[in-house]
Task: inverse folding
C-alpha cells in the first residue's frame, strides 16, 4: 500500500518536474542540459563491455567518490565506469574528475518506468550508491534486473533511522533488498541492521582517503598573494541563513581589525546573494576578480569552484559551514587534512563520528553559536602555538583513519 501511495505521489508531481528543472536552470544552466535523462530517455550509446555504475548525488559525494572510482578503474580495467548525479554542481565536478574515462549521466527520477529504462540501457554489472542514496524503485528495479546494489560510505543518522522506521515494512523491504552495505561507523551499521539490512560491514569513511588536487599548493600561494600579510579567518561551505549570523557576530565582536574574513558559500547559486549581504557591511572583493585585496577591505567572497583545498591551505583558522543551523555540517575532514585549525558548530549529524573524533584528537573545537565561533577564532588567531598544535593533531587524525577505500573495494570485488 505504501509503495502504491509513493508511486502515486511521484506521478502527481510529474507534470511539474520539467518546470522545476527549467526554473533551477535560471541560476544553474546545467540543470537544463540533457534533461530527458531525468526520465530515462536519450542517453548516449552504451559503451561496449561490462560496466560498473557509481551514483554520487551531489558535489560532496562526487568528490568523495574519487578515491573509490580510481580504485575501481585500476582493479577492473576491463570494465567501463558510469558515474551519475542529481545536481548540476555534482555533474560539473564529475565531468572534471571523471569525464576523460567514465560515462557521465543524470540518474532518472525514481519512477519505476524511468529506472527500468535506465537499467535496460546501461545493463550495469554492479550499482554502487554513495552514502545515503537509496530510492525504493531504484532498489526494486535493480533486484528485478539482477543488478547487485552496494551502498558504500553509508551513513544513517538517528533522526533518519527513526523516519525510516515509521514507514514500517515499506522501508524494511527496501533495506533488505540492498545486496551489501559498507557503513562508515558501528553506529551507522547498527541502524541499518535495525531497519532490515542483512549484509552490513563497517569500512570507515572514504573521505579520509581524499587527496587534494596536485595544483593545491600553487593555488594556495596565489590566494595568499592576493590576501596580503593579514591573518585569514575562513568560513567554509556556509549554508543559507548562516552568513547573516556570522556577519552579525563579526560586527558585535570583530576578531581584530587586521583579520581578513573569507566566506565561501557551499552552493554557487548563492554567490550573488552572499555578495549582496557583504555589500551592506562595507568593502569586499570577489575571488573571481583575481585582484589583490585592498588593506581597507575586510571581506573576501570565495565565489570559485574546485578551490576548497586551497582555501583551507591559505587560512589560519577555518570554521565549517552547515553546522550553525541544522544542516548537519559540511566536510571537516578536508580541513583537518590540510592542517587548518577547525571550528565547528553544534549541528554535525552528517559527520557525527568524524566531528567527535576530530574534537577528541584536538584538531577541532566545537562552538555553540556564531558569537562563540568568532570569539574562539579570535583567541586562536592570537595563539600561534595552539594553532600549530591543532594543525599537527589534524594531520595525525586524518592519517590514522585512512584505508576505507581499500576495505570497501574488498567488499565490492565478490559482487562484480
Result:
Amino acid at each position: 500500500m505504501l509503495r502504491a501511495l509513493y508511486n502515486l505521489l511521484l506521478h502527481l508531481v510529474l507534470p511539474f518536474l520539467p518546470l522545476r528543472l527549467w526554473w533551477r536552470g535560471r541560476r544553474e544552466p546545467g540543470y537544463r542540459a540533457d534533461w530527458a535523462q531525468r526520465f530515462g530517455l536519450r542517453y548516449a550509446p552504451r559503451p561496449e563491455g561490462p560496466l560498473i555504475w557509481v551514483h554520487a548525488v551531489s558535489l560532496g559525494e562526487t568528490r568523495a567518490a574519487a578515491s573509490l572510482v580510481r580504485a575501481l578503474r585500476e582493479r577492473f580495467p576491463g570494465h567501463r565506469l558510469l558515474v551519475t548525479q542529481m545536481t548540476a554542481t555534482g555533474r560539473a565536478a564529475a565531468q572534471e574528475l571523471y569525464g576523460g574515462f567514465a560515462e557521465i549521466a543524470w540518474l532518472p527520477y525514481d519512477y519505476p518506468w524511468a529506472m527500468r529504462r535506465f537499467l535496460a540501457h546501461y545493463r550495469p554489472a554492479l550499482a554502487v550508491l554513495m552514502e545515503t542514496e537509496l530510492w525504493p524503485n531504484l532498489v526494486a528495479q535493480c533486484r528485478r534486473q539482477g543488478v547487485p546494489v552496494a551502498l558504500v560510505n553509508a551513513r544513517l543518522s538517528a533522526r533518519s533511522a527513526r523516519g525510516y522506521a515509521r514507514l514500517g515494512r515499506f522501508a524494511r523491504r527496501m533495506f533488505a533488498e540492498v545486496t551489501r552495505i559498507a557503513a562508515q561507523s558501528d553506529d551507522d551499521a547498527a541502524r541499518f541492521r535495525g531497519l532490515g539490512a542483512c549484509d552490513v560491514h563497517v569500512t570507515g569513511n572514504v573521505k579520509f582517503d581524499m587527496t587534494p588536487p596536485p595544483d593545491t599548493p600553487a593555488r594556495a600561494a596565489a590566494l595568499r598573494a592576493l590576501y596580503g600579510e593579514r591573518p585569514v579567518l575562513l568560513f567554509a561551505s556556509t549554508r543559507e541563513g548562516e552568513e547573516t549570523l556570522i556577519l552579525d557576530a563579526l560586527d558585535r565582536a570583530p576578531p581584530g581589525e587586521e583579520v581578513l574574513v573569507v566566506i565561501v558559500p557551499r552552493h554557487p547559486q548563492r554567490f550573488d546573494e552572499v555578495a549582496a549581504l557583504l555589500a551592506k557591511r562595507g568593502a569586499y572583493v570577489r575571488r573571481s576578480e583575481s585582484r589583490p585585496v585592498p588593506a581597507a577591505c575586510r571581506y573576501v567572497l570565495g565565489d570559485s569552484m574546485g578551490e576548497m583545498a586551497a582555501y583551507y591551505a591559505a587560512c589560519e583558522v577555518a570554521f565549517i559551514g552547515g553546522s550553525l543551523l541544522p544542516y548537519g555540517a559540511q566536510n571537516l575532514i578536508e580541513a583537518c587534512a590540510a592542517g587548518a585549525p577547525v571550528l565547528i558548530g553544534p549541528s554535525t549529524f552528517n559527520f557525527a563520528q568524524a566531528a567527535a573524533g576530530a574534537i577528541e584528537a584536538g584538531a577541532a573545537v566545537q562552538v555553540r553559536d556564531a558569537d562563540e565561533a568568532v570569539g574562539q577564532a579570535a583567541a586562536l588567531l592570537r595563539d600561534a602555538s595552539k594553532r600549530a598544535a591543532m594543525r599537527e593533531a589534524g594531520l595525525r587524525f586524518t592519517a590514522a583513519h585512512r584505508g576505507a577505500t581499500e576495505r570497501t573495494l574488498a567488499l565490492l570485488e565478490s559482487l562484480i
Summary: Residues 2-205+403-413 form a domain with the Rossmann fold fold (CATH 3.40.50.11720). The first strand starts at residue 51 and ends at 55. The longest helix spans residues 384-400. The radius of gyration is 22 Å.
